[in-house]
Every structure is written in C-alpha cells, then in structure tokens.
C-alpha cells in the first residue's frame, strides 16, 4: 500500500477532560469538521467548541485518501460559489506562506470529438462570465503532450469504442493540494482560536431530550419537542449543540435517531504509476508554470493526477454501474479493476503506460448526494448535519465549513469572502436550489 500518511495523534486542547459542556460539538476531524470548527471560532471567538473524533488524530478518514484536486470553473451557480470561494481562500493563505501543498497545475479535460463542439461553447459562455478557460484543438494537444494518441486506431481501441479526442479544455485556476496539509492548516487555525479536540473518542449515540423536560423516564415523547442535547461517548457524555461532520459514517449515526443524511457511501480507488519512462509526460511546461502535466481527464473519465514527490501519477476512475453503494470501514483497491477497466484505456491514449503496472494503490469512499452531487447542510432537532460532499469535499471545504458555521449561528446569508455569499438554507433539503452542472466529464 502506498496510502497517504494520516494525521499524527494530537493531545486534547485546554481543559477538555473537565469541561463536559460546550456551545458546539463537532463530530469528525476530517476536512469538513475541521473547516467547520475553524469557521465557527473565526465568526464567534467567544464560543466554546469541541471536535470529537473517533480516530487518533485529524484526517484519519477519507480526507487523507483524497486526490485533492481543485477547480473553479463550473456552470452551476452553487458549484461556482463553493469552489471559487474555497480556491480564493486556499490561494490567499498559500501566498501568505501556509503550506497546504497547493500547486496550480491546472485541470485539462480531453474531450471526445462528438462532444467537443458542445463543451467548447460551454467554455466560451463561462469565459464571458469571468473564467479563463483555454480551448485547445487536437493538433495542438499532440504538440503539447508528448506521446499522446488523439485517434486510437488499434483493434482493441475499436473493440472498446474509444473516441478520437476532439480537443481539450484547460482550466488554469485549478490544481492539486496535499489533503493532509489542508486538514493540518484548518486544525492549526482552529486550535489557535481555542477549539478543543478530543481524539480516540467515538460518538456512540446522541443525547436526545425534550426542550422542556418533565423528568419522566423515556422522554422525549411524540407530543414533546425533541432535540439533540449532546453526544454520548465511552469517556462520558458531552453536552452542547451538535454538528455532525462524520463523512461516510454520518448516515449510520444520524439514522439511529431518525434523521436521514440523504447521501450514500461509494468506494473509489487510486493507483500509483511511476517510472523513468514517464519523465517526458510528467515534466511539462506547456500548460502552466508548475511544470507538470495538469490534472488530466481522458475521454470516458480516467484521470491522471501528477504526484508531487516524483515522476509518478495517481490514476483514478470514478465508476458507477456495478459499484454498489454501501459503507466500508477499510475499503481496498482492487488491481484487477485497474487491469480491466483503466489500463486498456490509459495505454491506448498514452502508450507510455502500456508496460507499467501500479506500484501502489489505495481506496477510500465518497459520500454521495445522489440527487445533485452537492453538499447537504441542514438542521433537524437542533442538530446540524453536513454531508453529501460527493467527491468534492476538499475543493469546497472552506465554503462548506463557512455555511455550516453560519447556519449554526442563525445567519441567513453566509459570507464566503471576496464578495461571494450564499443563503444558508440553499444547501438544505427544504429550500434547496442547486442547478444541474454541465461541466462534468
Ligand atoms: C479516492 C478519492 C478521491 C477524491 N478526490 C477528490 C478531489 O480530487 N477533490 C475533492 O475536493 N475531493 C475529493 N475527494 C473527496 C474528499 O476527499 C471528501 O469529500 C472529503 O475528504 C470528506 O471529508 P469529511 O471530513 O467529510 O470526511 P472524513 O475525512 O472521512 O472525516 C470524517 C471523520 O469523522 C470521524 N467519525 C466518524 N464517525 C465518528 C463518530 N461516531 N464519532 C467521532 N468521529 C467519527 C471519522 O473517524 C473521520 O475522521 C476524494 C475522495 C476519495 C475517497
């Protein structure tokens, strides 16, 4: 296994062993919980906040398994707001010296010829609204990407029905980050603000109660107004208003009290391919000053993410049909999946990969909102649930944390910075208003 290093164990912050009541209890120290805690303490430094995490440190869940790509160009208004505000935040803190492993390598979508005219017009529309997308014809791509085959013509390519690449769309305000460093950044900022962290502490269940308790065993009854009053753990009860940011674990724990997370887990895999023969492909100054091939999507969805440390690529493919929804605590990558689903396509478009097999692999899970693939942030029984990150939880993390914190504080319009704002109920399920995204490949 070549999985990424998860966060190191951290000690609890000030007074946590003695203080059993907080203004806010955040469940989960992945990127979502960390950003939420950081944003909440930034907006209201006077609040007492505790992050309760089952693992022995930050980023022990799916955040550390992320490809951690970010992009800013989307057609849907909500996607654009969430992604741009988060990218603005990341670029700003990086320029001030924060090390989150940010490299603006760009995103490159290689598009099948039958869809290229459509996507080019979408890109032109986005450019009229402030994007800086570059539309690249197939001939130029051949010059810019050493060894690419824009028109796979082998017998295998024909059997697989592979398309000719009609051209590419390059998004320069995009790139990659180190997901653990992103988590460490939010964690350090939350700690500096005075947030407490309680690691190795699993929330077993919620404290449920009536808002006006009568002291009758079995409360709350159906005729009472029920609320979540805190969490129960093996280390004791902690009282306070709860924000659940438990990623793929969230559906189970909120379901126990009759709350529906409205999102489902699905396994995703990444395979690491490295070798000296990849040097020409990897080192590429034709797209950005980062000097590597951008985060690149082939027609059909196989993607290549340049690794930071050496001439290696993380290769992934978010398959849907046949991939069951279901929670897995320790998902594992399956090399036969790579061999049968990814390698044949990869080596037709980029034959340099034909003789290379994975030197490492890992798997994690998305928590997918199956309606519109966007986060769901809602309040029920006084408890806020943040879920449905759907494979873009890092690139929207700042905005997600900001919205969750604003909802907690009763703020109707969350300020995402740089003049971007969004209604806090817009990502709920009652007044939800999320447009379909056209820029998906
Ligand atoms: C292979 C892969 C590739 C991805 N690529 C990208 C990408 O390119 N760009 C992007 O933006 N996103 C990507 N994502 C998605 C992104 O990584 C996730 O959306 C994000 O990390 C989710 O963060 P989280 O904090 O919600 O969940 P997690 O990081 O899983 O954190 C949840 C935490 O809750 C804790 N927890 C659970 N139950 C309890 C409990 N009962 N008590 C206490 N603690 C509990 C867990 O221990 C865990 O630490 C990818 C994900 C995968 C798997």
TrEMBL record:
Q: Which GO terms describe its molecular function?
A: oxidoreductase activity
| Gene3D superfamilies (alphabetical) | D-Amino Acid Oxidase, subunit A, domain 2, FAD/NAD(P)-binding domain
Which is an annotated Pfam family here? DAO
Q: Which domain of life is it from?
A: Archaea
Kindly indicate whether the keyword Oxidoreductase belongs to this entry: yes
InterPro entries listed in its UniProt record: FAD-dep_OxRdtase (IPR006076), FAD/NAD-bd_sf (IPR036188)
- List the keywords (alphabetical): Oxidoreductase
**What is the protein's given name?**
FAD-binding oxidoreductase
Which species is listed as the source?
Candidatus Sysuiplasma superficiale
């Amino acid at each position: 296994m070549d999985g990424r290093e998860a966060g190191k164990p951290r000690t609890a912050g000030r007074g946590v062993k003695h203080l059993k009541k907080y203004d806010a209890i955040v469940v989960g120290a992945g990127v979502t919980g960390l950003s939420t805690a950081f944003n909440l303490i930034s907006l209201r430094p006077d609040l007492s906040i505790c992050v309760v995490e089952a693992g022995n440190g930050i980023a022990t869940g799916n955040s550390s398994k992320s490809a951690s790509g970010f992009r800013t160009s989307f057609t849907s208004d909500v996607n654009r707001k969430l992604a741009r505000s988060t990218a603005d935040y990341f670029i700003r803190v990086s320029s001030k010296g924060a090390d989150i492993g940010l490299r603006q390598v760009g995103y490159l979508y290689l598009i099948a010829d039958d869809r290229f005219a459509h996507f080019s017009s979408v890109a032109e529309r986005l450019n009229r609204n402030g994007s800086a997308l570059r539309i690249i014809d197939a001939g130029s791509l051949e010059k810019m990407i050493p060894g690419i085959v824009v028109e796979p013509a082998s017998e295998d390519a024909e059997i697989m029905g592979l398309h000719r690449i009609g051209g590419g769309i390059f998004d320069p305000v995009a790139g990659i980050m180190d997901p653990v460093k992103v988590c460490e950044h939010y964690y350090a900022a939350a700690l500096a603000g005075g947030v407490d962290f309680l690691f190795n502490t699993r929330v077993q269940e919620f404290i449920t109660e009536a808002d006006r308790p009568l002291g009758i065993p079995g409360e709350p009854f159906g005729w009472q107004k029920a609320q979540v009053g805190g969490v129960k753990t093996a280390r004791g009860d902690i009282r306070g208003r709860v924000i659940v940011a438990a990623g793929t674990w969230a559906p189970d724990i909120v379901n126990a009290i009759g709350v529906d997370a409205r999102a489902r887990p699905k396994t995703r895999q990444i395979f690491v391919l490295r070798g000296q023969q990849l040097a020409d492909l990897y080192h590429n100054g034709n797209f950005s000053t980062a000097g590597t091939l951008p985060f690149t999507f082939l027609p059909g969805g196989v993607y290549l993410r340049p690794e930071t440390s050496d001439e290696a690529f993380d290769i992934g493919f978010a398959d849907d049909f046949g991939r069951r929804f279901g929670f897995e605590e320790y998902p594992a990558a399956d090399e036969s999946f790579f061999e049968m689903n990814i390698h044949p396509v990869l080596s037709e478009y980029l034959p340099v990969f034909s003789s290379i097999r994975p030197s490492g692999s890992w798997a994690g899970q998305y928590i997918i909102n199956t309606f519109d693939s966007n986060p769901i942030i809602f309040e029920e029984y006084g408890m806020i649930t943040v879920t449905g990150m759907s494979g873009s939880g890092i690139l929207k993390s700042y905005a997600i944390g900001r919205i969750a914190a604003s909802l907690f504080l009763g703020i109707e319009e969350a300020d995402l910075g740089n003049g971007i704002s969004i209604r806090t109920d817009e990502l709920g399920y009652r007044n939800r208003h999320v447009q379909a995204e056209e820029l998906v490949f």
